[in-house]
Amino acid sequence: MHQTLNATPQSPVVSLKNVHKSFGPLKVLDGVSFAVDRGEVLVLIGRSGSGKSTALRCIDRFEKIDSGEIVVCDHRVSDPKLDLRALRQDVGIVFQSYNLFPHLTIEENITLAPCSVKGVSKAQAKEQARQVLAQVGLEDKLHQYPEQLSGGQQQRAAIARSLAMQPKVMLFDEVTSALDPELTGEVLKVIEALAADGMTMVMVTHEMGFARGIANRVVFMHRGKVHETGPAAILTSPATPELAQFVGTGL
Amino acid sequence: MNLNLDFATILERWPAFLDGALLTLQLAFIATLLGTVIGVLGAIGRRSHHPVVSRICGIYVEAIRNTPLLVQIFLVYFGLASLGLKFSAFAVAAAALTINVGAYTTEIIRAGFDSIPRGQIEAAEGLALSRAQIYWHVVMWPAIEKVYPSLTSQFVLLMLASSVTSQISAEELTAVANYVQSDTYRAFETYILVALVYIVLSLVMRAGFWLLGLVIFPRRRRLGTPL
Lengths: 251, 227
Ligand SMILES: Nc1ncnc2c1ncn2[C@@H]1O[C@H](COP(=O)(O)OP(=O)(O)OP(=O)(O)O)[C@@H](O)[C@H]1O
Ligand SMILES: [Mg+2]
Hints:
The complex is a heterodimer of chains A (251) and B (227). By secondary structure, chain A is of the alpha/beta class. Chain A contains eight helices and ten strands. In chain B, helix 2 (14-46) packs antiparallel against helix 3 (51-65) and helix 3 (51-65) crosses helix 5. Chain B contains ten helices and no strands.
């Protein structure tokens, strides 16, 4: 059967349907389903080990799923014939450890992928680097090396590096977990601005206050399952005892 | 005891020593250049998921590291001769030294590759870079920058070790010394002079590598710290 995927404005940017994933005997994702529409911010929360990072990594095919279906920006991620690099041009991912390339300046970190993957000219890429760095408030760090930046600045630079590829969706995995509260604030501000600009995002975070403010949809994962999902309001009035316990309101 | 040193007789032969020194440098230059290429390819090979490729590269490295250089030189020399191939002593020496240093650089560069954190590669994959682009931009350059000191020491050692190619009559510095001392009966003076020339060659190489490092590693030039 031949099936084409229609890129209608209504189709979700990211959708997971009944996704299963095990590491050896350990079942990490046990029938996970959720979808993210254009311009939406989905926040994944849950205890350590509940499978949040794994779910996020499956979206960008850093992990292969055992069964189920993942579609991202009309790429069928679960298809073995997936054009991986095309998928990753549409998806930006930022990790907890910023992973800037230490031997390259911030500008070179940012221009590397646009120049070598998209064939953008050096001059154009540099102009774009200036723009994305302005977006994260780091215009003056263009010619610095990563180690010359604070953790928060490095993380913002990593976000800028992803933005330079003009992704259709951004994935964030606990991007502030390595930062102290002050630096966390500056990174979260950048993410808020992105959300306000209409960027579609899926993020894992432990910052509950931040999640409440930014999430259009919250997915609470528990033992590899979507245990509870809904608008940000579920964080203040959870329906399940597990989520209630997690957000610390008690029942 | 009467130590009677006569350097004047030896120094008269300076053009021969100069030729020898230049040939030694040429051997070192060729082996450094080709050895680096072999080292990069060998390191990629050793990390290959292809068991045959990684095994072949492993055997090469172990075979070279567990046999004497002089024996390797003879193997190349007599091996080519028994195949009926005729090469100059210089070509045989250059080939043997390259094969030898290639094994050591393979190990050094592989250690550099292994030191690149997995997260760096994932970040690059997330940016849609191809495997070759990741190897080139994210793995190879920082890896070489990290192991540059051990790599360059290895090349200086190789230059010194090239003296054993005098055994197959490559006309390098030590070979020159051997016939000068048999001509002049001034063996001690000759080898004192030759030792000094080797020290100078080492210093020249180290200075060259230091300058090269500044050119090819802009971060080191700017920050002055190791990666
Ligand atoms: N590559 C892997 N190989 C084996 N087990 C893994 C692998 N990656 C994750 N796991 C296991 O899968 C489970 C879920 O991991 P995951 O990283 O998705 O959790 P998480 O919800 O992100 O937790 P945290 O909040 O601590 O980041 C954990 O028990 C983890 O040990
Ligand atoms: Mg995680």
